[in-house]
Design goal:
Blueprint: E1 4-9, E2 14-26, E3 29-44, E4 56-61, E5 72-75, E6 77-82, E7 84-88, E8 91-94, H1 99-108, E9 112-115, E10 124-130, E11 133-141, E12 146-150
Parallel strand pairs: 8-9
Antiparallel strand pairs: 1-6, 2-3, 2-12, 3-4, 4-5, 6-7, 7-10, 10-11, 11-12
């Protein structure tokens, strides 16, 4: 895995990741996995209202598991953090409480006033790279604590 500086804002245009399989974990236990074929596309839109870099949209093209993860959602920021790129929204008020998101917020500040997360909407996206190419994408959810990793 590539190494990144800690808590540096990253800007980019667009990148995609072709997915071949997924693993889903609840409370750290593997509960489902399978072969899937689709593409995850991350796009940063310049001139966003809340961020200097711009809103980031994530689109799961032809999402084969919409009951597990939304096909379209957004993040406000992307920062580097050791072995990953972290995508997140840190709202002053939201309907979730997550220690990891709070820790990022304490360092990086709030990205918007309010956010209401809906079912199957990730609270954090992690992108892992090898030689600057995407190797794995993972999305974290709360209520319950859930993780879906795409390879």
């Amino acid at each position: 895995m590539d190494r990144w500086p800690i808590f540096k804002t990253l800007t980019f245009r667009e990148f995609s990741f072709p997915v071949e399989r997924y693993e889903e974990y609840v409370d750290g236990k593997l509960i489902s996995q399978g072969e899937v074929h689709f593409e995850i596309r991350f796009k940063q839109h310049n001139g966003g209202i809340f961020t200097k870099a711009g809103l980031i949209t994530v689109n799961l093209q032809n999402n084969p598991i919409p009951e597990k993860i939304l096909s379209k959602f957004e993040f406000d920021n992307c920062i580097t953090n050791n072995d990953r790129l972290v995508f997140y929204i840190n709202a002053e008020q939201s309907n979730i409480n997550d220690a990891g998101l709070s820790a990022i917020g304490m360092v990086m500040g709030y990205s918007r006033k309010k956010k209401k997360y809906v079912e199957n909407e990730p609270i954090i996206g992690n992108v892992f790279t090898i030689d600057q190419k995407v190797a794995k994408v993972a999305f974290r959810f709360v209520n319950p604590d859930r993780l879906i990793e795409f390879y």
